[in-house]
Amino acid sequence: MEREQQPGRRAILGAAALGAGAMALGAAGTATAAEASGKGHGLPVPTVIGHRGASGYRPEHTLGSYQLALDLGADIIEQDLVPTKDGHLVCRHENDITATTDVSAHPEFADRKTTKTVDGTSLTGWFTEDFTLAELKTLRAKERIPGTRQRNTLYDGRWEVPTFEEVLQWAEREGRERGRRIWLYVETKHPTYFRKLGLGLEERLAKLLRAYGRHRKDAPTFLQSFEPSSIQRLRKLVATPAVVLLSTANSRPWDFVEAGDPRTVADLVKPEGLTWIAGYADGIGPDLSLIIPRDSSGKLTTPTTLVKDAHAAGLVLHPYTMRNENSFLPADFRRGTDANAYGDAFGAFKKYFETGIDGIFSDNPDTALLAAEDFRTSR
Questions:
Q1: How many CA atoms lie within 13 A of 113 on its CB side?
Q2: Cα gap 367→63, rounded to integer Å
Q3: Closest by alpha carbon to 116, among 98, 90, 134?
Q4: Percentage, residues of the chain above pLDDT 90
Q5: What's the CA gap between 193 and 142, in Å, rounded?
Q6: Contact, 186 vs 222, CB < 8 A?
Q7: Is residue 146 reached through a cis peptide bond, with omega within 30 degrees of 0 on the bond before it?
Q8: What confidence tens digit (pLDDT) does each residue in 262-315 have?
Q9: Mean of the pLDDT values across residues 212-241?
């Protein structure tokens, strides 16, 4: 992999972004990325990213979920991209659409059910790469975790699977109506897997970004991927700010597995790993456990040095994912015995914000926004 340093790219940071008026110091007293870069894109700190839209309230990756996230005030709205058989990019968290659409209720597609191995995991279901866009448009989205979010099932069937181009058009319309830029956070899903199928994501994504003026370093867009090589490939195509996503410490990016690279995420979050990432990316999107680990009972322990180390490398941090339900919260902040009930999400947000992170992904952007405002006013 390339290790060429590109300080000009890191200087965008701002991812960047932190707003020009962002707090100057992180929890450990180190300069944040916004201060280090000297410039930003006007985003507040902490930045609130609507995870798959407002997926705590609407079926994920639908125009309804994106619209609600925007209406609630999310600073940025996330899309995950997978391709169709005929090469269109659509918004789904996974190419396996069994749990997120009504495909199983369509007898005409019964023979499309199959078993595939995606990034080393065997899955049985229906997959976007086996459908043309026209066929996919006959399906309707539904709630992915109905047992946890039963109220979201009210909206099952209301929206179809959107293409990324439809989202770009939606963002342009909303931007004109609101008189401001609409920020998007765009992930390439399973890029190595799809490239092997002849459905490379990066070139298709770059083409759309250029068509809608989101290919420049000051574009209101972040690109993200769990595969560093996907970000490196995108860097050669567009100047859009980009982030490397990092899963749990003992995991390995799938492109590393394919290439025989022995490094794990634990290696990438060391200072030398972060310096390597800073050579081609503007930030990292770590699992929250990399910021504050949990013990065997699920309670938070002592924060790691990742925030300080990443900022020292000139990277912003947008960890994932905060959700309001007890089942997703650290044990310290669960309330009552109902796993699906809300816990003390505000307490958990405060704990994470105190580490100096620059933003956070949340299924519940309204909660995150209130927590972010509480944190800013308490400083």
A1: 12
A2: 20
A3: 98
A4: 89
A5: 25
A6: yes
A7: no
A8: 999 999 999 999 999 999 999 999 999 999 999 999 999 999 999 999 999 999
A9: 98
